[in-house]
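Collaborator request log, item 7. Partner lab (contact: R.S.) asked for a structural prediction of peptidylprolyl isomerase to inform their binding assays.
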Amino acid sequence: MEGERAAEADYTQGQIMVIAATERNRYQNIYTSQLWQVEADPEGNTFEEVLKDQMGRFLVELATVDQMAQEQGVELTSQEEDSLKSLSQEYYAGLTQEDLDYMGVAQDEVYDLYCMYYRADKMVEEMTQGQNLEVSDAEAKVIEIQQIRLDTREEAEEVLTLAQEEGADFASLGARYSTDSQLARSMEWSEEMDALGEAAFALEQDAVSGIVEQDGGYYILKCVNAYDQEATAVRKERLAQEKKSEAFSGIYEPYAAEHVVVLAADTWESVDFSLGEGCTTDNFFSLYQSYFAE
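Returned to partner:
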């Protein structure tokens, strides 16, 4: 870390525990506490060790972006501060005594952490303004198809004849003849699609394709939804976020290389996932997202 150039991230232990408890409980509330000692990577690290490493990277990145924001003069308005105070009060009021006992955090620490997170968000927004982050419906398009896979072209030609008959039940044909039990598929548009993708996106609503050869199999496709509106909207939002992240990375990475931030060496020493029985809070980030949802 080149010694004198590395600055230590300024988190309280309570703030570390908020992040640790949130991420621990997101998994533990679903998979139980048995998962923490499960081997999670080829190096033999446990799931707890892997998750702590991920949280460490997040905390370093958050502190780095917050430092950038302060240097760039990104400040919170009084209205934003009031909103963050209300958010902090709502989050804190929702904590049980077991949550508080495990995290040992005060409400003002929660407020400061939310301010840091919001300021980082604001920094990203301001630094990516003016860049082309638009995602078109065509670029994000998701369709739904049914597919029948056959092992030989002769079989495929026979089934295609049946599928093209008036009133043919494509799903029933698939259940009867397909060598692949997966009949229904969602497909996302891409500039680099395989033969199946190209054939699928060339279909109009309820149309049946010809025979498509790929990976040693012969496929017949039917388009059952030429525009999945809900799935397309979700993908559009995801792609826009990916574009924003990519745009910001071009700003963040050179800065992070010159302004190294590290966590205190003892950050995780007092964080034990086997403790805190009864602590179940997992909504620090989801509450923030819902509070500031557009």
